[in-house]
């Protein structure tokens, strides 16, 4: 059985929606200590609605202890999934993916399933996880590699006001994980066809995330998975910016939003 490692955020409910038809182990970092029963209730309620209102967004923000602008876009543009990342029966909840949790995880029966892992996380995976799965780990990245690496990459790239760079980077990539940050061999990529048709950089990020989740679903549907023979001949040594979460400040967020609208008008 394969494993999914992700976070308990609103946007990862769309990942769960994509993969819920597969038999998978889920390891979910619930750093905010969200209440599963409250999540069940709000997703059950709002998934029935055709249009999500501002009042609904407020409800989601309360249950999820905050939504970012991309998550607000996803809710209004695509609705609310029926389930969330903490919904699965085969799910281990944790506060972090660190060494202490890993040692506890080794005592769980799910730890025997080492066939491969799919990850979509806001933290860098430690080397002991890579060793545990014998390098059979595929990461979903919500931008086109190697042109926009790291955290909040497409948003931070937008601040450059380089329209061609944004067009080249908008989309998603799945790749094998290595010790670097988004440097492993690339398996598949898919560009957003019309990023400038979207109203904001948050729309670009949201659609890139959904594209990434779709690539993971397609990967699970392949016959030969985690064989290391399915990579594309794309050079990862191209000089490209590496963005970190600590540099994604409120000022950068405002600049990303304004820069996208400026490029959209060019």
UniProtKB/TrEMBL annotation:
It comes from the Bacteria. Residues 123-193 form the Formyl transferase N-terminal domain. Pathway: Purine metabolism; IMP biosynthesis via de novo pathway; N(2)-formyl-N(1)-(5-phospho-D-ribosyl)glycinamide from N(1)-(5-phospho-D-ribosyl)glycinamide (10-formyl THF route): step 1/1. Keywords: Purine biosynthesis, Transferase. GO terms for biological process: 'de novo' IMP biosynthetic process. InterPro entries: Formyl_transf_N, Formyl_transf_N_sf. GO terms for cellular component: cytoplasm. GO terms for molecular function: phosphoribosylglycinamide formyltransferase activity. It is an enzyme of class 2 (transferase). Pfam families: Formyl_trans_N. Its EC number is 2.1.2.2. PANTHER family: PHOSPHORIBOSYLGLYCINAMIDE FORMYLTRANSFERASE (PTHR43369:SF2). This is phosphoribosylglycinamide formyltransferase 1.
